[in-house]
């Protein structure tokens, strides 16, 4: 799914109006109908509803929604924030339509003194300001927003929470922003929904398809995407009838050290569950019994060192290589990793301790094999690129790293972002807080390595791997709850995740 900027969304509206054709007022009515259907499905008709509207088209959406809800029998009050003398045409038409109902439910507010405290049992719908916002919200409107936030009521934002910028950071801008429980976005998600700094403002968000013209959507180029099932299912390969284990590649995982063999086991199991034909796992001697007994499908490559990774095995037969889970920061391991980078001719998946080693040796980044993959969590990422002031700056740093070194950078977390070397970013839609658990990252590394070795491109392996990993975590959480989800549970549900994608 594409993520479009505010400018391109405005262009999509204009294109739809011209080529469907449809009037802008009728398009607003169609969008409001979608809002109406969502509210009817999710809000008890016995609940009173307070709609706060601004004077633009976002306010027009709120007015149209209010009219529909009144006609359905909901108890609705409309609060118009008169922060300007100017109104849009569509706002005025919908305002007049409400007046024609003659239900005396419109309250015009031009100062904070005219704000009536909202019953905490009521539902507030925010239609004050839309995605075209260009400056922080202060003054009278900002004070009203602050009062709404203090109400204790459920808050539903139309398209975007008022005061929140869509395409740039709103952090520490000094303006007031609605703290929504739900955000109902038209046609596309906004980048603002997908970064941690806005979680308090956005709440749970939903996409409402308002029928913007598919010709425009299909032809519009964007560097930002939101990964959903249909994006993944089309990339899945069908296994030929007469295939054999050699058909699906040979992976090498370098993992584990004394006391951290669990990382090697988790990574290996996840790799095998992802369809690779053959797997060698390179481990120190102390881990032989643990790995062979827990993962008999794995072939061992045994290091000469008892406790650490210290030497590079023969690399000739491998289609993909992963390094990092549990290897530690031993000096011998760092020297061996340097040799590995120098001698590898296939893409590498670099995770965990291997990322920490890279952060201590940043010049090595230039020598990584083409189309390698880095999988840092935020702290590991910070060690490599330095700090950032907000999450949009963090995305810029992610793009810079990927472009500079020709690598794929997977920044883990809620809505994990996958940045390609050309600057495209794919935000993942699967996963849950239960996956914030020891070993989850090792499982992701194994999945991606398995896909990469079995013949998927680096781009597909990255996007599909993150999606499958998150989906397996979601299936685990359904069964066990988020609190009880473990890395092992995620592995057990990898197969179910593939089945779910195909279904």
Give the strand content. Answer: 15-25%
Please list the strands of the largest sheet in the order they lie side by side. Answer: 8-17-16-15-14-13-12-9-10-11
| Unreliable residue stretches | none
- The global form is elongated
Assembly status: single chain
Alpha-carbon Rg, integer: 26 Å
The residue-averaged pLDDT reads: 97
Structure description:
By secondary structure, the protein is α/β, with parallel strands linked by helices. The chain has two domains: 6-226, Rossmann fold (3-Layer(aba) Sandwich), CATH 3.40.50; 245-502, UDP-N-acetylmuramoyl-L-alanine:D-glutamate ligase (3-Layer(aba) Sandwich). It is 40% helix and 15% strand. It has 18 helices and 17 strands. Strands 8-17-16-15-14-13-12-9-10-11 form a ten-stranded mixed β-sheet, sandwiched between helices. It has a seven-stranded parallel β-sheet with strand order 3-2-1-4-5-6-7, with helices on both faces. It starts with 5 loop residues before the first helix and ends with a helix.
Offer a quick outline of the entry.
By secondary structure, this protein is of the alpha/beta class. The protein has helices at 6-19, 24-42, 57-71, 89-101, 139-149, 199-202, 214-219, 229-233, 261-273, 288-294, 331-343, 353-360, 378-385, 391-405, 440-453, 458-480, 487-492, 494-502; strands at 48-53, 75-81, 106-109, 123-127, 154-158, 182-186, 204-208, 224-227, 250-254, 278-283, 299-302, 320-323, 348-350, 373-374, 408-411, 417-419, 425-428.
């Amino acid at each position: 799914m594409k993520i479009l900027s505010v400018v391109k969304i405005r262009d999509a509206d204009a294109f739809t109006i011209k080529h469907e054709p449809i009037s802008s007022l009728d398009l607003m009515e169609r969008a409001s109908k979608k809002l109406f259907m969502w509210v009817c499905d999710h809000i008890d008709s016995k609940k009173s509803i307070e709609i706060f509207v601004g004077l633009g088209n976002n306010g027009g959406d709120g007015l149209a929604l209010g009219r529909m809800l009144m006609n359905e029998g909901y108890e609705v009050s409309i609060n118009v924030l008169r922060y300007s003398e100017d109104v849009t045409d569509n706002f005025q038409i919908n305002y007049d339509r409400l007046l024609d109902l003659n239900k005396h439910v419109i309250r015009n507010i031009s100062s904070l003194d005219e704000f009536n405290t909202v019953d905490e049992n009521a539902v507030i719908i925010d239609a004050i300001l839309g995605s075209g916002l260009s400056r922080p919200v202060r003054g009278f409107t900002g004070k009203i927003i602050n009062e709404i936030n203090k109400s204790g009521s459920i808050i539903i934002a139309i398209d975007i929470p008022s005061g929140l910028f869509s395409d740039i950071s709103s952090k520490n801008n000094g303006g007031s922003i609605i703290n929504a429980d739900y955000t109902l976005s038209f046609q596309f998600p906004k980048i603002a929904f997908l970064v941690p700094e806005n979680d308090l403002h956005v709440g749970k968000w939903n996409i409402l398809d308002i029928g913007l013209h598919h010709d425009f959507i299909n032809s519009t180029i964007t560097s930002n995407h939101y990964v959903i099932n249909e994006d993944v299912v089309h990339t899945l390969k069908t296994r030929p009838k007469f295939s054999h284990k050699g058909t699906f590649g040979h992976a090498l995982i370098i993992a584990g050290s004394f006391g951290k063999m669990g990382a090697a086991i988790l990574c290996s199991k996840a790799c095998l569950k992802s369809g690779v034909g053959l797997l060698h796992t390179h481990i120190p001697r102390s881990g032989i019994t643990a790995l062979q007994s827990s993962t008999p499908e794995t072939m061992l490559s045994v290091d000469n060192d008892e406790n650490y990774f210290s030497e590079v095995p023969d690399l000739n037969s491998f289609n993909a290589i992963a390094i990092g889970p549990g290897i530690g920061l031993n000096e011998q391991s760092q020297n061996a990793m340097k040799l590995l980078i120098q001698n590898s001719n296939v893409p590498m998946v670099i995770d965990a301790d291997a990322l920490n080693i890279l952060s201590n040796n940043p010049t090595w980044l230039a020598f990584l094999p083409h189309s390698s993959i880095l999988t840092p969590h935020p702290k590991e990422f910070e060690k490599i690129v330095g700090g950032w002031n907000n999450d949009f700056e963090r995305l810029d740093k992610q793009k810079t790293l990927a472009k500079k070194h020709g690598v794929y950078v997977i920044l883990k977390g809620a809505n994990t972002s996958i940045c390609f070397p050309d600057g495209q970013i794919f935000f993942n839609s699967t996963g849950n807080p239960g996956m914030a658990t020891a070993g989850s990252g090792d499982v992701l590394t194994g999945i991606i390595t398995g896909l990469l070795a079995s013949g998927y491109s680096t781009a597909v392996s990255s996007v599909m791997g993150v999606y499958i990993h998150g989906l397996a975590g979601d299936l685990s959480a359904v069964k066990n709850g988020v609190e009880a989800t473990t890395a092992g549970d995620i592995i057990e549900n990898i197969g179910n995740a593939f089945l779910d994608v195909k279904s």
